[in-house]
UniProtKB/TrEMBL annotation:
This is DUF2834 domain-containing protein. The chain crosses the membrane at residues 42-61, 73-95. Keywords: Membrane, Transmembrane, Transmembrane helix. It comes from Pseudomonas tohonis.
Length: 102
């Protein structure tokens, strides 16, 4: 319960901040991403972020299988993760069914 609440609070706070930043940004999201990848120092951070998201995606896949769902259920979470990074896994944590141990 605490993990789900923490994920929900993080999702609302970070999702709200992301929406705010996107609303005041002067450049499109794809242009911003290309700019980040154009310099080695910022590209390293982006690559590191997506490696971490890839590992989280593997965990999401395994957890999803344990819960008896198909890969199609994960597709929206993976798409959100590809564009907004941590928002996808946070959304998955908020919406996943609790296990018997939880």
């Amino acid at each position: 319960m605490l993990a789900r609440l923490s994920a929900l609070l993080a999702l609302v706070a970070f999702g709200g901040y992301t929406l705010h930043v996107m609303s005041i940004s002067e450049q499109p999201l794809l242009e911003f991403g290309a700019q980040l990848m154009s310099r080695p120092d910022t590209a390293q951070v982006v690559i590191d972020l997506y490696l971490a998201c890839g590992l989280i995606g593997i965990w999401m896949y395994q957890d999803n299988r344990r819960q008896g769902r198909g890969l199609l259920y994960l597709l929206p979470f993976y798409l959100v993760t590809a564009v907004f990074a941590s928002i996808g896994p946070l959304l998955y944590l908020v919406l996943r069914r609790p296990t018997a141990k939880e």
